[in-house]
Structure formats: C-alpha cells, structure tokens
From TrEMBL:
The protein's name in its UniProt record: Transposase
InterPro entries attached to this UniProt entry: RD_transcriptional_regulator, Transposase_8
Source organism: Streptomyces osmaniensis
Superkingdom as given in the UniProt entry: Bacteria
Amino acid sequence: MSKRYTAEFKRDAVALALSSEKTVTEVGRDLGVSPEGLRGWVKQAKVDRGEGPAGALTTAGREELVRLRRKVREQEATIEVLGKATAFFAQDKMR
C-alpha cells in the first residue's frame, strides 16, 4: 500500500537529502520513506529547478499534460456522442 505525502513533506525531505552528508537511501530510511521514492522526488526537484536532462517535464508541465489529456478524452467522447446523434437523426429523417 502506498502512502501519500504532502507537498511540504516532500519538499523538506528533498532539501534534507540534498543538504545532508548522508546518502539518499539513509535519509529515506530515517524519514520512513522508500529510498526509490525519495530519489524520484530529488530527481523531479532538480528538473523543476532546470537542472534535469533536456526535455524532461517539470511538475507544472506534467500537470498541464494530464489536464490536456483529460480534456482531449472529454472532447473525443463529445464528438462520438454527436456523431451518433447525427447518424440517428439522419436515419430518422430518411423514414
């Protein structure tokens, strides 16, 4: 079962991992967070600060992508309904 952590907790954990002499694994264990999870948070924080690889999505970019994909799905569903309605009324008109 995965735990949910607040943005504040994640931010503080990342700051501790980056400023500590300990490894990310040690900091993660001290905080009760999986080392892989903390490593991912650190990586994303670096991307958000512009220190990540070229083309990596920032957190804001990811959120925008999710929002846009949801909007596309909604619009595709609307188009499908309108297409079916058009076909129904066109067929009804032929009778």
